[in-house]
Amino acid sequence: MRKLIPTLVLLPALASGLAHASDGPYVGGGLLLRHYDLQQAGTTATKDSAKGHVLSGKLLAGFEFNEHWALETGYLGFGKPGYDYLTTLGAPGRLAVGGHAWYGALRASWDLGNPSWGGFVKLGADRLSQEVSGSGAQVQPAFSRRSTELYVAAGLKYKLGPNAAVTVELEHFGKQQAPGNALNGVSTGLQFKF
């Protein structure tokens, strides 16, 4: 599986020299919204909320072979939400969870009855990195994990013109390995074709 990620990441660049009747490369960026719940048993949040949403960034690049098929790669930062707490005995502590992912995926697209509106699904793999840091009696020891996971997404695209589109999608990055760090999110962004 480790050899799959570099292959998926490099395929869009390699495909540009192989495809003759293609729509070409595209780039994009956007925002990713995720929910988190870091509440630890026996603690009370003092400064930040133990539950909430975190907004982070996303960058992507891909190559459309035709109007239905594309290869895409991207980077997503998950932010680093955290909270300060007191235990039931009054001892202070802090917990923070963060991470990022690189993904490579095959994207299938179709029109939704109107040439301006389209739907798409993505299936691929991501290289997921998760970190937990904290202090205090209630926090598990700090750790950092990296793993290759299944990447799945589905969304809608609205074409602003022949070379620009707005997207909204639901994304899934793999198994939850860090406490309270949901690996699902809703992203919105812009894509530009060359």
Describe this structure as you would to a colleague:
With 194 residues, the protein is mainly beta. It has a single domain (4-193), classed as Porin. 8% of the residues lie in helices and 63% in strands. The protein is built from 1 helix and 10 strands; from the N terminus they run αββββββββββ. Strands 1-3-4-6-7-8-9-10 form an 8-stranded antiparallel beta barrel. Strand 3 and strand 4 (69-77) form a beta hairpin. The longest helix has 15 residues, at 4-18. Mean pLDDT is 81; it is low at 6-21.
Helix percentage range: under 10%
Q: How is the CATH topology named? A: Porin
Unreliable stretches (pLDDT < 50, length at least 5) are 6-21
Largest sheet features? 8 strands, antiparallel, barrel
CATH class: Mainly Beta
Number of strands: 10
Number of domains: 1
Mean pLDDT: 81
Envelope shape: elongated
Structural class: mainly beta
Query: Spatial order of the strands in the main sheet?
Result: 1-3-4-6-7-8-9-10
Our estimate of the beta-strand percent is over 45%
